[in-house]
């Protein structure tokens, strides 16, 4: 598993915990201490970026996750989508297909049997429309 894959999983852990506890992921991450922050720069990049763009990211999930309300979507799927959408739209150094593939792999290992296909479909629509999405 690559360092970035591990960072995505670690960021997902924070995002999921924050979602369940109804707190901000960035605050949860920062509460862990400066030592951990310095050891996980890409985790911080993901959590900070998602925090900065959460309203737009969630708007896109609501728009393209047809048939699912944010409240009905499993929290793990919601947060996998948040990571991938952030990487697709704001992380210029990440290949679009890599962001999508990593999200699908996280869903396969951590969520339901149907989640990986569903996440792949949502991200595929976002990738296709990326240039027309106002960010």
Automatic annotation (TrEMBL):
Write down the InterPro entries for this protein, in alphabetical order: NusB-like_sf, NusB_fam, NusB_RsmB_TIM44
Q: Which GO terms describe its biological process?
A: DNA-templated transcription termination; transcription antitermination
Q: Which UniProt keywords apply?
A: RNA-binding, Transcription, Transcription antitermination, Transcription regulation
- According to the entry, every stretch annotated as the NusB/RsmB/TIM44 domain falls at 6-128
Give a GO cellular-component term: cytosol
The record's SUPFAM superfamilies line, in alphabetical order, gives: NusB-like
Keyword Transcription set for record? yes
Coiled-coil regions in this chain?
A: none
- UniProt-recorded Gene Ontology molecular function terms: RNA binding
Record keyword RNA-binding present: yes
NCBIfam families from the xrefs? nusB
Q: Which family does it belong to?
A: Belongs to the NusB family.
Identify the HAMAP family for this entry: NusB
The name on file for this protein is Unannotated protein
The protein's organism comes out as: freshwater metagenome
Organism lineage: unclassified sequences, metagenomes, ecological metagenomes
């Amino acid at each position: 598993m690559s360092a970035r894959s591990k960072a995505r999983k670690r960021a997902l852990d924070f995002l999921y915990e924050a979602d369940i506890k109804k707190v901000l992921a960035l605050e949860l991450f920062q509460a862990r201490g400066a030592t951990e922050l310095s050891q996980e720069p890409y985790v911080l990049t993901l959590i900070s970026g998602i925090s900065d763009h959460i309203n737009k990211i969630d708007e896109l999930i609501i728009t393209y996750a047809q048939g699912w309300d944010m409240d009905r979507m499993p929290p793990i799927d919601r947060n996998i989508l948040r990571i991938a959408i952030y990487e697709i739209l704001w992380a210029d150094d990440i290949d679009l297909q890599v962001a999508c593939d990593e999200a699908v792999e996280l869903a396969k290992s951590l969520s339901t049997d149907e989640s990986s296909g569903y996440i792949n479909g949502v991200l595929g629509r976002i990738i296709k429309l990326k240039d027309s999405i106002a960010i």
